[in-house]
Specification:
The protein is α+β, with helices and mostly antiparallel strands. It contains three helices and four strands. Strand 3 and strand 4 form a beta hairpin.
């Protein structure tokens, strides 16, 4: 039960400069979408052939109003002794029903895709899609206020 590989197949980022100039940052809403789009069995050729699973995924960031978007498509190569059970579940439900496996896959997608998205967002000067921690000087810290 291990992730063997993580690959991006498509990286796309767009910005609407005209709309971005009109909108104020406080009106901005950011939504994420993470979806596993498909699962198929593949052969991995190392010392001997080994059957593995390929999970195709999509990670997107959508800004509202539509000042821009980020779309990342890729796949994860995964080794598990329960390949057949996972594939059967996918064929019936079109979902990963094993919650531990699903959490492992989604966490890997979220972590790697967020790092790639930060780089792409900076290239086109879109606002960062999550707040970074900020340091506040002690004299401006609201917790120190007595009044």
């Amino acid at each position: 039960m291990a992730i063997l590989g993580f690959t991006f197949d498509k990286l796309s980022v767009e910005k609407d400069r005209k709309l971005m100039e009109k909108e104020k940052p406080e009106n901005l809403e950011v939504r994420y979408n993470i979806a596993i789009k498909g699962i198929k069995e593949e052969e991995l050729k190392l010392q001997e052939k080994q059957k593995i699973l390929r999970f195709d995924f999509e990670f997107s960031i959508i800004y509202t109003p539509k000042i821009g978007s980020v779309e990342l498509l890729g796949h994860i190569l995964y080794s598990d002794k329960n390949n057949k059970k996972i594939l059967d579940s996918w064929d019936k439900e079109k979902d990963v029903t094993d919650n531990n496996l699903k959490a492992q896959l989604l966490n890997a997608i979220f972590q790697k895709s967020n790092l790639k998205a930060i780089s792409l967002i900076q290239e086109v000067n879109l606002p960062l899609h999550f707040p970074l921690p900020r340091l506040v000087p002690p004299d401006q810290n609201p917790k120190n206020y007595i009044g």
